[in-house]
Amino acid sequence: MIRFLMNDQTVSIEQCAPHTTVLEYLRTKAEQRGTKEGCASGDCGACTVVLAEVNEGRLQYRNINSCITLLGSLHGKQLITVEHLKQQGALHPVQQAMVDLHGSQCGFCTPGFIMSMFFLYKNCSQPTRADVEQALAGNLCRCTGYRPIIDAALSLAGQGSNDAFSEKEAQTVSCLQAILTQQPSGSLVDGSRQFLIPTSSDALLQSLTDHPHPEAKLLAGGTDFSLAITQQLQQPEVIIYTGRVAELMQCEETERSIIIGAAVSYSDAESLLHKHFLPFASLLERLGSLQVRNQGTLGGNVANASPIGDTPPVLLALDAVLHLRSPAGREAIPISEFFTGYRQTKLPPAGFIESIEIPLQSERTLCVYKISKRLDDDISAVCAAFSIALKDGVVTDARLGFGGMAATPARALNAEKALIGQPFTELGIVAAQQALSQDFSPIDDVRATGTYRLQVAQNLLLRAVLEHDSEQENSNQIMEVVQYA
Ligand SMILES: Cc1cc2nc3c(=O)[nH]c(=O)nc-3n(C[C@H](O)[C@H](O)[C@H](O)COP(=O)(O)OP(=O)(O)OC[C@H]3O[C@@H](n4cnc5c(N)ncnc54)[C@H](O)[C@@H]3O)c2cc1C
Ligand code: FES
Ligand code: FES
What we know:
CATH architecture of the largest domain: Roll
Bound molecules: flavin-adenine dinucleotide, FE2/S2 (inorganic) cluster
Largest sheet: 5 strands, mixed
Number of helices: 17
Helix content: 25-40%
Shape: globular
CATH class of the largest domain: Alpha Beta
Radius of gyration: 23 Å
Number of strands: 20
Protein name: Xanthine dehydrogenase small subunit
GO molecular function, one term: xanthine dehydrogenase activity
CATH superfamily of the largest domain: Beta-grasp domain
Strand content: 15-25%
EC number: 1.17.1.4
Keywords: FAD, Flavoprotein, Iron, Metal-binding, Oxidoreductase
Strand order of the largest sheet: 2-1-5-3-4
Distance between the termini: 46 Å
Organism: Marinomonas ostreistagni
Number of domains: 4
């Protein structure tokens, strides 16, 4: 059985198909049809709802796409839908602002925008235009135009975040704590089909041993996984949710590395990455939308093994280590050995990623570039990450990670070799630029041609040099990512 708060009512569900999405549940079972379905693939934001979870005794609010969130993952959380915002007969301040500033026409996208604005209202009392753009980048409107919507969100600045939800916060916290204390784990069943919620790495291993792949599938944030359900209509027999596995939900900082649990969301990993790898954290701002980052995880991105995933090139450049667990035991393998072919990895049978360890790098320069057609919420044509050690202007070591250039995310080993011993200058990188064509023969697809990809990869090396030069001129600060669409 799973238990969660549906607005302020406790809901218990035992019998339900494990692949049921929150959106499907809302519209067909709970008969709460304010939440809309546009794309069913996480792209349009029409289905946005807000989840509240207890974090250090307070409620943490997150906007998410209900179309790609599975119902079982709601265990122990509060699901807030647009129907619940109006309280005691009064519109919520975000709803009132949309009315006052004419932010809606046909209204199809409006519930989604309202929920993203509600998320912003609860998390940021003085939103800037940049905050508003970040919060709303995952919501599409096709008829009103964004100006009035952004005006509505900006008009809330300085109003504080006190509302009926704040008044009931203590009550909600104790209700959610009671659910998780009485029942830390949960499950859904539907005949032989199951949704399982292990709470420890041992229990996760046991679940995978009891239900080996392909019968059982691991679910983290679901931002890749759920598309197989909504787009390809797959109905997995057993879904094992990692979002309550304590060991996979931890971040750790040691003297030599940071360790990010495989089920930690991008939003939760952001502050640690920002502290140690600013260019990496800046890249995350362009990974999907806020709704996607509030759910998606590093572990899911790596395990998915997509050649165009954004984080593997950076993890390759940073020489990250994956901590894997399986019935055969625990092992740590460098990410450079993990990807074995198109969407193939070295993950052992019934195995899972526990965490990703990133060594801290002093005295190296990190540059990260994402090339995509659109700035926000778009998949990379090419993603590149360079970690370069220099002594007196000469390259002493280099790791160049690329996505979008081959069947797997990969390092450019020939180009790395050609860089070492050369000055990090326009002339010094020419051999490495040429060597990139030995490393990669990229393909043509809808995002870019192979010729374009190779040219871009070569140009990015030049860009790194030019930025390094101007950084040197301006200051001695560590180079930061430059984003480029
Ligand atoms: C609208 C939208 C935009 C997106 N934009 C981007 C983008 O810009 N860049 C990008 O890189 N990606 C993007 N994605 C893809 C996706 O968000 C990322 O790949 C994300 O990191 C996946 O993480 P997840 O936690 O949601 O994984 P899930 O979907 O839960 O799982 C993905 C795969 O990993 C497996 N898995 C999960 N956890 C583990 C584990 N611990 N051990 C072993 N296997 C595991 C699952 O079984 C599944 O096969 C986008 C997706 C959407 C829907
Ligand atoms: S319906 Fe489009 S993001 Fe969910
Ligand atoms: S108001 Fe019509 S799509 Fe936004």
